[in-house]
């Protein structure tokens, strides 16, 4: 398998694991994207309108928890300054699904 095939497979697996409509157990080496998957899953939950106080994410260390929190807030702070089309594109990149007006209202 060539490099583009490996990247495509990785992105597909990460998208599947970050889907909040399914259960997932992610186990991988350091630096492989576990935090990215969890952050993406949290963002997708927020897009769907889940109350942030109902989201629980567990990590093994406070450093990892801080890193995850920083990533979520950094992404959301970028979204605040985007116009509608740029925001739709950002959300589409997370969800790989068409953005609805209802979904955008929650962000």
Mean pLDDT over the full residue set: 84
Query: Structural class, from secondary structure content?
Result: mainly alpha
Compute the number of helices: 5
Shape: globular
User: Which residue ranges are poorly predicted, with pLDDT under 50 across at least 5 consecutive positions?
Assistant: none
Number of strands: 0
Distance between the termini: 38 Å
Share in helix? 55-70%
The sequence of SSEs as H and E is HHHHH
Question: What share of residues are in beta strands?
Answer: under 5%
Describe the main β-sheet briefly.
none
Radius of gyration: 14 Å
What can be said about this structure in brief?
The protein is built from 5 helices and no strands.
Give a description of the structure.
By secondary structure, this protein is mainly α. Helix content is 62%, strand content 0%. The protein has helices spanning 3-17, 34-47, 62-80, 84-95, 101-106. The longest helix is centred in the middle third of the chain and has 19 residues, at 62-80. It is globular and about 35 Å long. The relative contact order is 0.12.
SSE inventory with pairings:
Blueprint: H1 3-17, H2 34-47, H3 62-80, H4 84-95, H5 101-106
């Amino acid at each position: 398998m060539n490099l583009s095939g490996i990247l495509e497979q990785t992105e597909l697996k990460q998208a599947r694991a970050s889907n909040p409509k399914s259960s997932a157990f992610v186990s991988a080496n350091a630096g492989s994207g576990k935090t990215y998957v969890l952050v993406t899953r949290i963002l997708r939950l927020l897009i769907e309108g889940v109350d942030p106080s109902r989201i629980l994410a567990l990590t093994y260390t406070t450093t990892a928890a801080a890193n995850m929190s920083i990533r979520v807030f950094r992404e959301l702070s970028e979204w605040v300054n985007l116009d509608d089309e740029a925001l739709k594109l950002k959300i589409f990149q997370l969800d790989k699904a068409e953005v609805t007006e209802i979904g955008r209202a929650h962000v």
